Amino acid sequence: MTSEAGLPGYAEHFSEPEGYLDFARYGPPSRDVLDATAAALAQSAQAGHTTVNELMLAEPRARAAAARLAGTGPAHVVLLPNASTGLFHAAFGIPKGTVLVPAADFPANHYPWRRSAALGRAEPRWLDAAPTPEAVDKALTDVVVAVSLSAVDFRTGYRADLAAIRQVIGEDRLLIVDAMQAFGVADLPWDAADVVVAGGQKWLRASWATGFAALSDRALERLEPTLTGWTGVEDVAVFDDTEHPAAPDALRWSITNLSPVTAAAFAAALELVETVTVRAIAAHVAQRVDELIDAVRAAGGEILSPVAPAERAGIVSFRLPGTDPAAVAKTLHAHDVTPSVRADSVRLSAHASTTAGAVDRVRQALQSVRA
After folding, report:
1. Phi (first) and psi of residue 3, to 5 degrees
2. What contacts 361, CB < 8 A, 6 or more positions away?
3. Inter-axis angle of helices 278-298 and 356-370, nearest 10
């Protein structure tokens, strides 16, 4: 096995096993996140008259970092406990009409639209193709008010061309993007979207119960604040037994106070990405993906992910013809490699801390299956 380190200045913040290749499912957090979490919990245990207010400062810090990475301002960002909450906000706030949604998208981008339709609001139309600009353009009709899709497909790692899709749908429709498999690891034009939602437990490596939404001016104007809670209104600290107007900015998507402990963890994770830069992370991941594709092909594997760099992110899905994916996964496990295994395929996902040694493990495992 080789011992080549991952991206200098980034990999030393992490300690996952060398063969961990399941970042599309969960990204083990950095020591920065662990330290931030421990410090916030320790502070909360010594509660005084200023403790809660001091802990709550982590939220605007995380919002500011998320805004910088999304190419917008803090007023356009709200912290959320997960991406699904943001998608439900969008689905319950959208005007009546049809929303174009890829039929093969992750279920988190299906259920909000199904629930919205059940309440007589937006009606999903399922796109039976990859969300290419051409497929989206072909499916558009006058009743389509929005397109909702994943920036990166969870099965194959296909990367949507957000800028081209924006051009296709024009300025009169909303573009809603689930960035769960992309934010912080793929250098994408987030300003092309009206709504960007992401959770922090995968590629951002902030662990669970972290996330955010970024809303464009168009989204703030057109989406009704249907799910606004008591923390999403004007004069939030005034308790006068009346309903207050929704906040004028993205904070209108706030339902209640989130954990300042998870906010501190999220801030640490986002700032680490900022320090290294998404572009540098994406370049390292692209190199590892190239190497993993070569390793799979050398063992006679069939690549299910796009091979063109412009169309992919950090995911490599494949199958070995004639071999049960469960058997492939078992051999990978024997070589201390952690993949995701599906009924018809195996998925590998590398990050910027992934070393060449992880690729060596995959190569040796697949060659042993072939033998």
Report:
1. -125, 20
2. 1, 18, 19, 332, 335, 336, 337
3. 20
Compute how many other C-beta atoms are within 10 angstroms of the C-beta atom of residue 238.
9
Residues paired with residue 78 on neighbouring β-strands, in sequence order: 213
Bridge partners of 126, per DSSP, are: 101
Distance of CA 204 to the CA centre of its chain: 8
Residue 174 CA to residue 157 CA, distance in Å, equals 23
| Closest-CA residue to 28 (of 270, 229, 208, 233) | 208
**Residue 355 one-letter amino acid:** T
Going by pLDDT thresholds of 50, 70 and 90, the confidence category of residue 8 is confident
Q: What pLDDT, in 10s, does the model give residues 14-51?
A: 999 999 999 999 999 999 999 999 999 999 999 999 99
E strand or H helix that includes residue 77: strand 77-79
CA distance 105 to 107: 6
User: How many Cα atoms occupy the beta-carbon half-sphere of 105 within 13 Å?
Assistant: 29
Q: How far is CA 197 from CA 22, 89, 167, 299, in A?
A: 21, 10, 20, 37
Do 292 and 359 touch, CB atoms closer than 8 A? yes
pTM over 0.90: yes
Share of the chain above pLDDT 90, in %: 96
325-334 vs 356-370: helix axis angle to the nearest 10? Answer: 130
Q: Which two tokens stand for residue 68?
A: 């910088």
In this structure, which amino acid lies at residue 370? R
DSSP for 288-310?
Answer: HHHHHHHHHHHTTPEE-S--SGG
Pair of tokens at residue 11: 């990999």
Give me the amino acid identity at 7: L
Written as six digits, the tokens of 105 are 């998208």
Categorize the per-residue pLDDT at 2 as very low, low, confident or very high, splitting at 50, 70 and 90: very low
